[in-house]
Prior knowledge:
By secondary structure, chain A is mainly α.
Amino acid sequence: MASQTKRANFEITPDQEATLSALKEAFQASSLKDAILRTSTVMLVLARELAAGKHLYVGARSDTAERLILPELEALEGGWRWLVARPHPWRKQLWVKGRKLLASQVWSDMNSNRRTTSQAAEDWDLPAEAIEEIIRYCEENAALLALEADEERRRLRDAEAWLAPAA
Amino acid sequence: MLTVAESNQAGAPDSVVLDMAADAGRVLLTRNCADSLALHEQGGAHSGILCVFQDPDPSKAMSYEDIARALGNLERSEVPLEGVFLALNAWLY
């Protein structure tokens, strides 16, 4: 039986070519095609595990392993559609996709101004579905958001930005 | 007043927004306190950064009216803002 194949052509930049070459070397693959296919298999496994709510940890020993954040995969965690992880020196909460906007900023703004979902959607120019997801995420991760708020407040105090006005 | 969305910079990095505000001689009002503070500490010139801290206690979180009142208090105090970073929450009274 003749094999059914298709030719796949795509343009790549010199940087992307270098990345693919490094990938081929890392996998000790016989060709770029082999490297891409093997990488795809690995990424699909990881993506499925993260989508199921699992986390990635790395370390020399299991008791010292640290959570590994891969932004490309983290967005799949929990099945969030409108939220995404981003590299940040200390924040771990998710951001609104395509915006420089933390999930907690929308949530806090809604709570302090007693805005409904539809009002918040209008305020932030986001679909109501995105607002509903933000609420669900923030409620499920309230402890994390509180700790990050504490960390932010500590940094402000250390920088003496929290100065009370002169009496 | 000019919002980030109105200036088509909704997804822009904080540094770009701050530079834009500085070039226009505008004070930057932001909810992203920690990242704005980090930019301020890099030492670049700006016309002032006011941050609104997200208090995890809902009773202390600033509403739009609170922000407007705090801005009024700050303005009346005539505190110079050039190159200054302030948490606006402290000006709500």
